[in-house]
Amino acid sequence: MSRMTLAAAAAALMASTCAHAAEPIALRDMGSFHVGGRLVEITGKPVKEVTFTPGGVPAKVDPNGTYQVEQMYVQYFLPQNEKGAYPLLLWHGGGLTGVTYETTPDGREGWLTYFLRKGWSVYNSDAVERGRAGWAQYPDIFKGEPVFLTTANPFERFRIGDGPGSYDPDPAKRRLMPGSQFPNEGYENFVKQNVPRWTTTDDAAIAAYIAEIDRVGPCIILFQSQAGSFGFKVAQARPDKVKALIAIEPAGVGDPAKVESLKNIPTLMVYGDYIERDSRWPKIRATGVAFADAIRAAGGSVDIVDLPKAGIKGNSHMIMMDKNNAEVAGLIQTWLEGKGLTKK
Amino acid sequence: MSRMTLAAAAAALMASTCAHAAEPIALRDMGSFHVGGRLVEITGKPVKEVTFTPGGVPAKVDPNGTYQVEQMYVQYFLPQNEKGAYPLLLWHGGGLTGVTYETTPDGREGWLTYFLRKGWSVYNSDAVERGRAGWAQYPDIFKGEPVFLTTANPFERFRIGDGPGSYDPDPAKRRLMPGSQFPNEGYENFVKQNVPRWTTTDDAAIAAYIAEIDRVGPCIILFQSQAGSFGFKVAQARPDKVKALIAIEPAGVGDPAKVESLKNIPTLMVYGDYIERDSRWPKIRATGVAFADAIRAAGGSVDIVDLPKAGIKGNSHMIMMDKNNAEVAGLIQTWLEGKGLTKK
């Protein structure tokens, strides 16, 4: 490429980038709501005096009474020019919240605004026990204890680094997966998104996700990691309302005895890179593929995309945050269009 | 008013309502980030095996290591047609999150979109320990225990109901304050917004709010209840960056020894109704008024609006959720315009 051509190409690229950045997002509405949950009675505890603000006026707080627990938070953005045939629900993975789909840890656009710009009504939630959904006393209401992750843990377990011991506080000293697409310099921002999680609240999460669908109506669900089992199980509970499933590296699947219920729901499964190098991911992926095979055997349609085989290399478990997140979102958008899920 | 005039007025009102509902929100950008926080080392704990997903592949979780704690979550919406001279930061009260300012519990527009439609860049946060900010182990990192509120507690303490015993699960049987503006039928949705809180994390919250201002730059802060002390103290720490303060029923104030630092920051304090009927609010309000007097004595400017005296009656502590929330927002907007804080 000659110097002139290169300069022209660079100018064109800049113009296109600026045009995109300048493109406003026009919303016909935005807002939030909570769904689901239940009331629990607690009795037999002593009354406390709580000074909520240092130096403030103490208030009596009687811990006995009724508590609202296990609700879920949903934030929605409805585009002015709607092009999706159904709303798109984004369900995050374990130890995370809806922040997963917002700005990436290195400050780029996340999938929430990507799909919003494409004309989808987007519903982004914080599952039961996470973020703006709140959480309940344990062991009184939640049965287990919360799990906290060290700074290093997701780096080594989410196929950003090359396994145990690969993390170092200094970004330059980290043993990244070769060709990793994760924005390494933003890793600390990603860690700030991590929140405590329980491993004993799955039933409550599923109940709340069902309540979300019952409120929103017919929809498409995009879900990741822990939400793998939520996405498939909720679709099995509401097969008529779920119009498509997009499973990003699902860590769990639905009920194998009820695959029949998924046969009319077009499904896309997406897996990133380095599966073979990891100690757990080959088995996790195999579970997903076996579930897909069972759906197909029941007459359903599942497309599995292993990104490296499709020429998209270097993706971690956090595909929606990776440097090529827009490329993968484009692949999903194309799949949705191909399934006739955009407005005519 | 004749029947014809009434019909014409109703038609005009409907047209104006529909026009408002149809008016799109045009954003030049939206997204989120985390600010602040620190790293804490935990040692000497046994390694656990955690099965994150029921039936999934167990992972070893070593609780020893470095934890990211005390960061804060900020979500921002930047209007295409910016009319505010500075970004508007919204800081919620105790046991709540940024949801405070979104859709009201009965499904109307909250202050976030109200001010966004008026052309303000709005930054809505979840303070340290709340919502999408996450929280840390106690007593290892956070020193105290979290406080949980019963369903009845905010109703009786936030001047929605008329004091202790006024709550009933049946909305029709509740003893509301006379003429209450709180959307009683939506009270259960409000309770779903409540999250556990600590009373030992104020210093961390202040540090994170300062980090927010250092990132966003010169700004206006609107804060409520618990954030009263945060708003004033942070302004005292960054007096050159804070261009106005709007204190909605502040439950705490700043450092009385440093009121001098607030003298160049125009300040508005807003109090709702029923203050005299409550056991704690007369003292809380008196503390706010005394602080305002001290700022004035130091040469500063504070406007105190007691809503009932301004003819706006029936407001609870949750003014941004009350049925007349848009009327009070209008009062704040007018004050901001009067202080010359909108673009020329």
Automatic annotation (TrEMBL), chains A, B:
InterPro entries reported in the protein's UniProt record: AB_hydrolase_fold (IPR029058), Carboxylesterase_BioH (IPR050228)
Entry keyword annotation includes Membrane: no
Secretion signal, residue range per the UniProt entry: 1-21
Keyword Signal applies: yes
Alphabetic keyword roster: Signal
Gene3D superfamilies named among the record's database cross-references: alpha/beta hydrolase
Name of this chain's protein: Esterase
Species assigned in the record: Bradyrhizobium ivorense
